[in-house]
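Thread: sanity check for a docking pose with zinc ion

Original post by kr_44:
Hi all, I'm comparing my docking run against an independent structure prediction. Below are the sequence and the ligand SMILES. Could someone generate the full complex and paste the structure tokens? I mainly care about where the ligand ends up relative to the chain.
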Amino acid sequence: MYQLKVKSTFSAAHAVRLKNGCMEPLHGHNWKLTVCIASAALDECAMVVDFEELKKLTNDLILNKLDHSDLNAIPAFKGNATCEAVAKWIYDELESPVAKMRDGINLESVTLWEAQDCCVTYSTKNN
Ligand SMILES: [Zn+2]
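Reply from moderator J.T.:
Ran it for you. Here is the predicted complex with zinc ion included:
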């Protein structure tokens, strides 16, 4: 199985509701995103896909919506704009378009870094 990853970054603000019910003050992060797709087979060019193709998909479907945004203002994150919620949303947005890139390609995982030392990986795969 091949795993192909592309990394990207976006800037967005959020305020997380904490366990005690308090809201953090609104603050920004330079989020780092890793999208990982998997395929057992390669195409006629010996690629899973062209890196640029996955970068464009991520840019069009994710970065264009999240970059320079207030995540709390996006309906999908009304519950709580946590790194977990954003990572799952990105996964859900990309899952179907990635599967349509070519037969046998699947979205493996999405890893979202909120800070240099804090990240969440979301996947529906059992590994
Ligand atoms: Zn934060």
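The CA atoms of residues 5 and 36 lie 4 Å apart. Hope that helps with the comparison, let us know if your pose agrees.
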